[in-house]
């Protein structure tokens, strides 16, 4: 492939009441991906927003689905595989790719790392202001394996169950993916808005502790609402600024 060759990349989403960010997320993702496939359990306007992208988006909607991350991810993986992808890219509805990601990623997957099967991406945890992200201790070095090249993947590619209620914390790509031990870190950054404002952080803190009480591995999820957490830095919460506002949450149209 040449640098500018555009492989068939399918984005996979699982969404629930994601109307705040899903439009911006899909806009950034579909600059790179051919299609997005979505498993949705929303009762807000998420589905209507997704449908506005026309035939670029396929949606399986059932608002009565009980919470199960592994089941949902296996469903969207099956949906993606029907589109004969060269790559599958797992994205959350509150994740937005930084501008100019397409040129960077195509160069990486076509030329710089054309033999690599798994790509990792760094998360910038956007926090309180449009151009501010948290950058202390754990938050300063969050990388996740999100993109897999399908060429060498096993025929039984699938997500396994997790040791948490509702299969929480199921990873972005299947645990039996080929190439997990030889992944490459992409220069593309992902802006994560899931913890952007205090209300969102408090809601997730309460919901996670209700679903998964007493989880010491995640320190009771205190890093979402407190600077006194084992995932926080020695000076508490610290922040850095982007050069420009990438997404203004006050202007989501």
Integer-rounded radius of gyration: 18 Å
- Whole-number total of structural domains: 1
Element-level helix/strand string: EHEHEHEEHEEEEHE
**Which band does the percent of strand residues land in?**
15-25%
CATH architecture: Alpha-Beta Complex
Gross geometry: globular
Task: Please describe what this structure looks like.
This protein has 253 residues and is α/β, with parallel strands linked by helices. The protein has one domain (9-241): Alpha-Beta Complex (Spore Coat Polysaccharide Biosynthesis Protein SpsA, Chain A). 21% of the residues lie in helices and 22% in strands. It contains five helices and ten strands, in the order βαβαβαββαββββαβ. The protein has helices at 22-29, 46-51, 69-81, 101-112, 198-211, and strands at 9-15, 35-40, 57-61, 87-90, 95-97, 118-126, 132-134, 143-149, 184-192, 239-241. Strands 1, 2, 3, 4, 5, 6, 7, 8, 9 and 10 form a ten-stranded mixed sheet that branches. A hairpin with a 5-residue loop joins strand 6 (118-126) and strand 7. The longest helix has 14 residues, at 198-211.
Can you tag this structure with a few keywords?
single chain; 253 residues; Spore Coat Polysaccharide Biosynthesis Protein SpsA, Chain A; 5 helices; 22% strand
């Amino acid at each position: 492939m040449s640098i500018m060759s555009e492989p068939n990349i399918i984005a996979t989403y699982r969404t629930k009441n994601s109307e705040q960010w899903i439009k911006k997320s899909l806009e950034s993702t579909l600059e790179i991906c051919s299609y997005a496939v979505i498993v949705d359990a929303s009762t807000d306007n998420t589905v209507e927003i997704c449908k506005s992208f026309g035939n670029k988006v396929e949606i399986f909607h059932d608002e009565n689905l009980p919470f199960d991350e592994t089941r949902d991810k296996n469903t969207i993986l099956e949906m993606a595989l029907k589109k004969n992808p060269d790559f599958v890219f797992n994205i959350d509805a509150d994740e937005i790719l930084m501008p100019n990601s397409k040129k960077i990623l195509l160069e990486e997957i076509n030329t710089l790392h054309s033999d690599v099967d798994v790509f990792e991406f760094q998360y910038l945890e956007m926090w309180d202001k449009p151009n501010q992200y948290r950058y202390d201790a754990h938050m300063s070095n969050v990388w996740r394996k999100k993109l897999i090249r399908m060429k060498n993947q096993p025929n039984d590619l699938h997500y396994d169950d997790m040791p948490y209620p509702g299969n929480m914390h199921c990873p972005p790509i299947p645990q039996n993916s080929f190439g997990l031990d030889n992944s490459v870190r992409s220069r593309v950054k992902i802006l994560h808005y899931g913890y952007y404002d205090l209300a969102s952080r408090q809601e997730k803190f309460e919901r996670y502790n209700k679903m998964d009480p007493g989880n010491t591995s995640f320190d009771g999820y205190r890093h979402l609402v407190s600077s006194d957490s084992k995932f926080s830095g020695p000076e508490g919460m610290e922040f850095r600024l982007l050069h420009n506002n990438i997404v203004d949450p006050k202007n989501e149209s």
